[in-house]
Amino acid sequence: MELLNVSKIEKYYGNKSNLTKAIDEISFTVNKGEFVAIMGASGSGKTTLLNCISTIDRVTAGHIFLGDTDITKLKNKELNKFRRDKLGFIFQDFNLLDTMTAYENIALPLSIKKVKLAKIEEAVNKVAEELGISKVLNKFPYQMSGGQKQRVASARAIITDPKLILADEPTGALDSKAAKMLLDRFEYLNKENMATIMMVTHDSFTASYAGRVLFIKDGRIFHELNKGNGTRKEFFNKIIDVVSLLGGDMNDVI
């Protein structure tokens, strides 16, 4: 079932005398329950694409549909409600509130929606167990490791059961062990909870956890890979092959 439809979107920055085309007529669809990675060199347009889908940025032309909603037409209160109810965000730098415990950070989206305390407690405990962070719920961010902070941020992103989880370089600030632990949890959420995930990454190993990879070059989709029934190792090797094929300015995505 189709969840996301990105149709001929363009994004320009600057003015007439100095115009940059960050996205050049990109179109693709994502089905419910898919895990899609977006790869590309710095300046390729991958983060701009994610920002347009997340409504952080507005497209210059084209349309983005999530379900039946054309999100390019939403304004102000509608947009805020849409972000709160339909999307989950995971950022590289965690974006946790330092004065709140892990429990309070995770519970915040439900508190804003005025969910009853008993239901909040049940939801926080459930998601904390799924992400392996039950033991840090009473800790503040400064008392946690990078991996724990990122899993707390992930728990906060998914606690509202969003239609789409958007992750921007979620493993970028983590060591290899913490990154693998987080990716294993993403894989669990995707397979067990049918969570739909779109993830920007520069890292081939991280991308190999997805079921599909879109390669962006100069604001356009250059290539697409599907994992199919192959193993993650086989998929990783295919990703490396495409990265090698792109060469030159793409060396920084290996």
What's the short version?
With 254 residues, the protein is of the alpha/beta class.
Secondary-structure element order, N to C? EEEHEEHEHHHEHEHEEH
Q: How many E-type strands?
A: 10
Could you give a short account of the major beta sheet? 6 strands, mixed
By CATH's scheme, which homologous superfamily applies?
A: P-loop containing nucleotide triphosphate hydrolases
What proportion of the residues is helical, as a percent range? 25-40%
Rg to the nearest angstrom? 18 Å
Strand content: 25-35%
- Uncertain segments: none
Total domain units: 1
N→C terminal distance? 32 Å
Strand order of the largest sheet: 6-7-8-3-9-10
Judging by the overall fold, what is the CATH architecture?
A: 3-Layer(aba) Sandwich
Shape: globular
User: Can you tell me the CATH class?
Assistant: Alpha Beta
